[in-house]
């Protein structure tokens, strides 16, 4: 596994939209987020593929060209999108994978539809990526126990860091960036800790981290872009549901299991979600129905999904998950 060089003051960070762009009335939030990154001492370069008038920021060829250019530019040390979207998958056959693999590794950050990009990047190139807050989420103050992707990307290779569940999350809704473009404090109004879905007992398990958004990754099964066999040894697989109902998620997880996605799983972490159940199947039930047969710990309500706050996970990092009556932590080593 290869890890990009740590970010340092003066480094350049690229912003592009591999999926959805930014509406004109949300540009003040984008500008505020860029300013927050610049206050860390970085130079921010905003690309041309940023149009938010439609469901994609630019034609697929243009988006692929811009992302490839940023990932092969030695002066750009990290790439972050404003947010996810719907159709990042159309970039996969258009990216210059050989050029990206041969280039100096660059940090790529994001979640949601960006899983369609960052997870294949790790699987196909052996370069670590960060499943963490997108640019529009970056201004939020990080709760105690968690780190921002900017903190992680500044760590040298070989570093070990620990994140712990803050025990609180946002119960509903999101900040309206049109009315509050400078929002920087999460509304964390509900208590909640991780839970084990497959039974009782403490969890202490290790492996390399890999995962992302279920609705994005399920479409990569049976292709080289979703082949977890590229990562040797035990794996800590993390997944999160964006919004699909429990029956759809259950079906997707079954398909991913049948495709071999979980063949090396030592545990599965499930992100906290507000996605609905159906009358006879909850989101928890969906996970157990599809993955209970794996015989590994299934730990749910981890802060790695669409419900704030965010616990960034590094695809490709060595991870250790500890969950018991007094502790819920993820320890990651960039090695």
TrEMBL record:
Entry annotated with the keyword DNA-binding = no
Q: Any idea where the LD-carboxypeptidase C-terminal domain is?
A: 206-318
* One example GO MF annotation: carboxypeptidase activity
Ordered alphabetically, the record's keywords are: Carboxypeptidase, Hydrolase, Protease
Positions the record marks as coiled coil are none
Domain LD-carboxypeptidase N-terminal per the UniProt entry, residue ranges: 13-132
**One Pfam family named in its UniProt record:** Peptidase_S66
Q: Which InterPro entries match?
A: Carboxypeptidase_A_C_sf, Class_I_gatase-like, LdcA_N, Peptidase_S66_N, Peptidase_S66C, S66_fam
Q: Family assignment?
A: Belongs to the peptidase S66 family.
Protein name per the record: Muramoyltetrapeptide carboxypeptidase LdcA (Peptidoglycan recycling)
Taxonomic lineage of the native organism: Bacteria, Bacillati, Actinomycetota, Actinomycetes, Pseudonocardiales
